[in-house]
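Issue 218. Parser rejects a valid record. Input:
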Amino acid sequence: MLILATGATGKVGRNLIARLLEDSRFAGARVRALCHNRLFPESERVEVVRGSIADRDDVARAIGGVTHIVHLATCKEIPDDVMDVTVKGLFWLLEEFRTSPTARQFILIGGDAGVGHYFYRHDGPVTEKTPHMAYPGCYALSKVLEEVMLEQFGIQYDLNGCCLRAPWIMEKDDFRYTLSFGDDLFGGPDWKAMVPEAEAKRCAQKGTVPLLKDADGRPLKRNFVHVDDLVSAILAAIDNPSTKRQLFNISMDRPVDYGELASYLARTRGLDSIEVASRFHSNWMDNSKAKYLLGWQPEYDLERLVDSAWEYERGVNDPRVVYYPG
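Output the parser choked on:
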């Protein structure tokens, strides 16, 4: 087994490779990391190929002898790059994969941006049959195009591919910084832009957290997944016969309710909260298909997500580096 991992130096890639190398089920597996800007450390079982997925020759060179692809690389809100990296890149990967004599399985990591997450109202749980609904911007559009392209390659060529659709992925102390009113905010919304400037400064100084309200005035529900749970799902999908041409939601069992979150932080850490109005919509990803077909179960709930983020202590060799803001 030779697994090609794109986006190997990101949070999912790093954790996936580490877990895969430790898992006895994959004792004979090797990993090839296709790297662009940052390099993954090589070892006896990990080799690095440098190149861009937007370049067909680089992709062809990386896929030689590969049995599995786990496609993690993506591009955020960068209009100049997104079509080359996300759309053309996936096309070249699929083109080379479908003609490879060794290829067995293609796993794409998608995102709930493809169904609009909190930008649109959903009248029921977000399932794998929920229509695509890209919100404004190029990133969400690219996630829709990825899922559609993989689906069509499956129809055209009976390709053994699957998509694991994840919401916002957390690791280490990420979740703590998603709630910051300061300049150290990770991702969005930008809380300090949603309250008066003086209030934002006060909240940043005191560590006050936002109690986000949805368009109906109720505490907003938003989906998250911890990187450990996503990696477990990827490992469960590898060579699983139930995954062929399937899409799976990979998320916590329940979305984060910002009202429950504020109450838990007040009770366990004495933190104040402030209500923040929005036009966003609550939604709930249904992960039952993944649990049924993959035999997968998320380990993180709201309390564990909070506790792990607040209790994480960074060492001197573990600085907080954000390569993209969300």
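Fixed in the parser; the record now loads. The two ends are 33 Å apart (CA to CA).
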